[in-house]
Structures
1.
Amino acid sequence: MFLSASVIRIHGSISEIDAAAWDGLLAVQSAPSPFMRHAYLQALEQSDSAAPDTGWGPRFLTLWGGQALLAACPVYLKAHSYGEYVFDWAWANAYQQHGLTYYPKAVVAVPFTPVPGTRLLARDADSRSLLLQALIAWCKEEALSSLHLLFGADEDIAACADAGLMLRHTVQFHWQNAQWKDFDAFLASLSHDKRKKIRQERRKVHYAGVRFRWSRGADIAEVDWDFFYRCYARTYREHGNPPYLRPEFFSRMAHDMPEAWLLFVAERGGKPMASSLIALSADASVAYGRYWGALERVDCLHFEACYYQPLAWCIEQGVQRFEGGAQGEHKMARALMPVRTTSAHWMAHPAFADAVERFLEREDEGIDSYLDHLEGRSPFRHPG
């Protein structure tokens, strides 16, 4: 299992790792995403969006065979559990009630990004396993309470299971393209009540005088990026929270990886009033609903900006999958179907590990029942 002459290195910044080597490793994974690209993680770090001051202490573990990068992953020392979308507040409270310290903990994830995909970049299974062993050893050396790998790909989860980590399941909602020729053909595949509801919601936005335009990649103007951030920040603040991502992060996205982004802008009377930002995979086969915001209130505008406009675009462009992000059972009414996602967890304290394992067994039974329940609520027409 152990690779001869291999070396583990721990980096305090992704800028210490060659971008071409990191991205080359990402490109050969089974489930790459734009959110694991070197430029994306560097933008999070250098914009101070995911930085020690915000409770995200970046570390990057790499495995080397001579000059060859064999495996790598991001890991963050977390001072809280915000921005993860796999909720462990109850575990933290239990630690506190017993006089133990839960934070800092280690999280292998993309900050603020609940998108499933490869987390342990590796050339092969042995490299991935060795990287995971090094992660656990590092957590022990640092006297951390726990290690959490969030929204991993199948090979990540298999490696974690083999290493004895506990698995936790959650549910997301994803849309799959059945090669519909247009949005009307997609609607025709839905049950009568769902089709009627979508048409009613779209008419409300249209009759309110709202029209949409989209731009992609380098065609997204700087003024549109600036307008998007106003919308994004305002929506966060309306919910009583400061925005996770800072303006410099999006400036870096516009400059360093514009090809990964698609922007929809809603206008009324020729004036922009809302926007939604969609990410795209490298081959443009997958679209990811990420951020949205509005400066004016219009009934059903959120559904139009975040689902109907992107889905119509995906159908037109032949995109195979649209991922709607974390949670949101209401997405099923828009034909985003339930998908099981998996995370893996290691706890340093044996008694708490046993308690968490029992909790996860009960929770998993509930997830199975929930998925069975959702399967009976398909928005699509029944055959015949």
2.
Amino acid sequence: MSNTEVHPAELRCGGRLDAARPPAVEVLTARDVPLGGPRAMTVRRTLPQRARTLIGAWCFADHYGPDDVAATGGMDVAPHPHTGLQTVSWLFSGEIEHRDSLGSHAFVRPGELNLMTGGLGICHSEVSTPGTTILHGVQLWVALPGEHRDTARDFQHYAPAPVPLDGGRALVFLGTLAGDTSPVRTFTPLLGAELSVDPGATITLDIDPAFEHGLLVDTGDVRLEDTALRPADLGYLAPGRTALTVANTGPDRARLVLLGGPPFGEEIVMWWNFIGRTHEDIVQARQDWAEGRRFGEVRGYAGDPLPAPELPTVALKPRGNRH
């Protein structure tokens, strides 16, 4: 999904492990962002924000729906570019048609991962299919480390099998959790999983103590450790823990997305759909997109590519995590 804000954020952000231990759970609340046009679909954006800009290499998290396609028109994102990142598409309901300049033509369906690697440059389109009535899911980005940020374009699809838990289940789409490991290739260690927790149940999961973690609530009222989280909240846990406990305090099944990875350890500059290391990286990527270089072409989409917004009149300023 494109970051189609009228005034997209620019960030230079870094993750590190402090000697001082932060609060047990840091609660990040989302902000509403309309994605382009008079019938804009509103998303709830939890990353990036001033309080925290990275969780591991996870640098962007949009949470959207349930969106009534009959009322909103659904998703129709024209071809747009990406550099220096991987996009992670994960749906709870609906279906999205994906086309990219690598030549991939695939569908995003509930419980199935589509992971696209931008690297030096890729472009893609995303359109909800005619049979979709309710569109509901998350769009996530992963920053590529410096040694791989100009890697070749790639696309991977994976449908994880459900992993039963005592009081719920997991779908592990990246990394390892609850004895299950995803085969999907990433450039830094990552964890990505959808969790379902039964009403009244409490689940405890072993986690990697080198990772920091974020738990995004889609539905339900839950407690992460001793902290209450409501829908659209993201609870952050610093590295150092070997287990994570989630309790469903509501009457219905809770659905959550668990993200994790070791602190990224690098600074990045992120603006619109580009991730670089300097202001000049972003200027060059924008110019290449405007002049039809580097990103290739999406075939099969009926419409023009998205134009890039205007850059700010001053150099992109550094912003970092608050510790």
